[in-house]
Amino acid sequence: MTLSDLYATIEARKSANPNSSWTAKLLTQGPEKCAEKFGEEAIEAIIEATKGDKTRLTSEAADVLYHLLVMLAASGVHLNDVLAELARRQGTSGIEEKANR
Ligand SMILES: N=c1c2ncn([C@@H]3O[C@H](COP(=O)(O)OP(=O)(O)OP(=O)(O)O)[C@@H](O)[C@H]3O)c2ncn1[C@@H]1O[C@H](COP(=O)(O)O)[C@@H](O)[C@H]1O
Q1: From ligand 1's centre to the CA of 100, what distance in Å?
Q2: Which PANTHER family does this chain map to (predicted)?
């Protein structure tokens, strides 16, 4: 499963029944709710990272990635645009990138 596969599934859930799909249910609640869920999952991942529990962090990181993609889809931002931005930054040092912002 790639992030692109997961993003495609999430996009397809825009027209799915909210009673049979968690993703569809979340998407019907709008971009603010999706952003809120992403924030909650990010905090849970931070907690596991600071505790040093690799198994729990792995699980929470999966939740973060999934909810990031849901938030992007809800906000009308395509994963390919994010990947293109990452590709643009490739070969540029982080320090240089920061100076250009
Ligand atoms: N990767 C995920 C994924 N990760 C987490 N979740 C769901 O995200 C929810 C996380 O919510 P919480 O942890 O906050 O738990 P909760 O108690 O249910 O939520 P609250 O009521 O407390 O807010 C759970 O219901 C999880 O099942 C996911 N749901 C779906 N996917 C992927 O999306 C695909 C499509 O899913 P459906 O749309 O459900 O068919 C699936 O096949 C998976 O590949």
Answers
A1: 37
A2: HISTIDINE BIOSYNTHESIS BIFUNCTIONAL PROTEIN (PTHR42945), HISTIDINE BIOSYNTHESIS BIFUNCTIONAL PROTEIN HIS7 (PTHR42945:SF1)
Q: Which of ligand 1's atoms lies nearest the C-alpha of 23?
A: 38
Query: What pLDDT was estimated at residue 100?
Result: 72
In the reported structure, the alpha carbon of residue 53 is separated from the centroid of ligand 1 by a whole-number distance in angstroms of 21
| pLDDT, tens digit, 9 for 90 and up, residues 71-95 | 999 999 999 999 999 999 998 777 7
Tell me which DSSP letter residue 18 carries: T
Q: What is the pTM of this model?
A: 0.91
The pair of structure tokens assigned to 62 is 């999966």
**Residues flanking ligand 1, CB < 6 Å:** 6, 9, 13, 21-24, 63, 66
The CATH number given to whatever domain includes residue 30 is 1.10.287.1080
Calpha distance 59→65 (Å, rounded): 10
Domain ranges, residue 26:
3-99
> What is the C-alpha separation between 18 and 3, in angstroms, rounded?
22
The count of structural domains within the chain is 1
